[in-house]
Amino acid sequence: MLEVDDFKYQNIDLPHGLSTGGYDRSATARAIFPDDMRGKSVLDLGSKFGYFCFEALKRGADRVLGVDVDSESVRKARLLADCLGVKARFERFDVETDSIDETFDYVLCLNLLHHMKNPLAVLDDLVRIADERLILEVASLGGHDRRKVGVSRVANFFLERSPIIFVSRNGTWGKRSVQKFFMTSSALDNLLRFQRNHFARVQTLPSDHKDRFIVVAEKRRIGRLIVVNGPTSAGKKTLCRKLVGDELPEVAARVGIDRGSEWGPYVHANRLWKPSEPQVDKMILHYDFLRPHLRSAKVHERDEALDVLETAEHITFLTIWTPPERLRRQIREGEIEPKTRFGMFFGRKRHLRIAEEYEETSRILEHYRDWFRYTAKHRADHVVVCLSDPLKLYSVEEWEEVARRCEA
Description:
Number of helices: 13
Helix content: 25-40%
Radius of gyration: 26 Å
Number of strands: 19
Strand order of the largest sheet: 5-4-3-6-7-11-10
Strand content: 15-25%
Shape: elongated
């Protein structure tokens, strides 16, 4: 077999002391795989001859699939699997045109993004299908790739320290239509931690392969998620604090909180990028549903903070209904007056613009209805609470009756 075909890309050990030759990727395998992978599933995109699939099986992985756009690489990987006597599947697959309908615990995309026509679209697909870890090995502007795309040492000194996606004109040195996208480590960190909120931790490691880097992103997995939400100055922080402190037993019982201390501390939507434990049984999320408003996101579907909903098994929305007159008073007393000196406002301009919106009751109700339309797209429970005295709990349908009375 070795005499007939060329396998010299990844060094794979074979029976009888033989090996395929090629790059030694053992250091990368040790960096990305734990010693015990029993019961885990692995997808390797651009698997070439299957080295990482075989390494996952050695560690006890239960289901392993390697895919590659090159049918000849798939054929050779199958030959090696037969030679090793292992149950690894290898299929021809184009990640940019073919769909992946199943998920995997570990999704590997090593040295592949820079070959893609649309690497950011591919990255979105990988985020979707990774259940536990997304592992990337990325072409950057290290010595190997810098020379290939003709970036000088001086230019590279500045580029590699910035969150840059470098796009070459027509591949390496303009000679081949391949390897067009080169990303710095801070660019990948921004994409995975700040532009998406699916991951609890993102770790960047050096790679000994072509002076590139490795990203290990651990998917966030939440058992039960309660989203305490409402418009700006509605009292979300107070509600979160009282739920965690067991001060609102009626509300807690309605949303399924037995002991508030088991749910705290609550997490603010603006701080989801901070590293946390991947597996969380119970979480309270503080979310201002005006967050996309007056920002570039505009709509909830484009707000990266709400990516966290895709990581939860069970969701409860707990929306604070604050009647318009009270909402106007709370933003004035909480955000406008304390930050106004000598007739000048020193707070956030956004609060002034929202305070102007609050002057029209119809605009307040429109924001609530926009939020309810968005949440209706999710399989979730929804409770509306009014924190006035006496406290009131509504369904969304019951709230609509209250809203109509406000409009009358």
